TrEMBL record:
CENP-V/GFA domain mapped to chain residues: 1-101
Swiss-Prot/TrEMBL keywords: Lyase, Metal-binding, Zinc
Gene3D superfamilies: glutathione-dependent formaldehyde- activating enzyme (gfa) (3.90.1590.10)
Family label: Belongs to the Gfa family.
Family matches, as SUPFAM superfamilies: Mss4-like (SSF51316)
GO molecular function, one term: carbon-sulfur lyase activity
PROSITE patterns registered for this protein in UniProt: CENP_V_GFA
Protein name per UniProt: GFA family protein
Organism field: Novosphingobium piscinae
Length: 117
């Protein structure tokens, strides 16, 4: 689950829930729009969304390329319960009320961030 500020905008104030896959295993069909932006990490990220309903579908790091798996928004999967969350990232950006499962690891920032602390 990602608590970066961009994900909070996307998820209406909460974290996004993402399932990670190797990019080569991902196919997406349909009317998909894309946005490229600099993420909180400093990396360049492409976000894919449905042009019909606006739902966020994926996020992938384009620069540096090939460094991270693609992040599929769990709610868009045919089986959104495919995998339970197993970590929180960007917890420094989370609001004080953010619910955290104490059994899961928390990371103050994201893995592979171009911007270091
Ligand atoms: Zn995020």
């Amino acid at each position: 689950m990602c608590w970066c500020r961009d994900c909070q905008y996307i998820a209406s104030g909460s974290a996004t829930v993402n399932v990670l896959f190797p990019e080569a295993a991902f196919r997406c069909a349909g009317d998909i729009g894309t946005l490229r932006m600099t993420a909180d990490s400093g990396n360049t990220v492409e976000r894919g969304f449905c042009r019909q309903c606006g739902s966020q579908i994926y996020s992938r790091t384009t620069e540096p390329a090939g460094t991270q798996p693609i992040r599929i928004r769990a709610g868009t999967l045919d089986n959104p319960g495919l995998r339970a969350p197993d970590a929180y990232i960007w917890t420094d950006s989370a609001p004080a009320w953010a619910p955290f499962d104490p059994a899961l690891p928390r990371y103050r920032r994201g893995p592979g961030s171009a911007r270091k602390e």
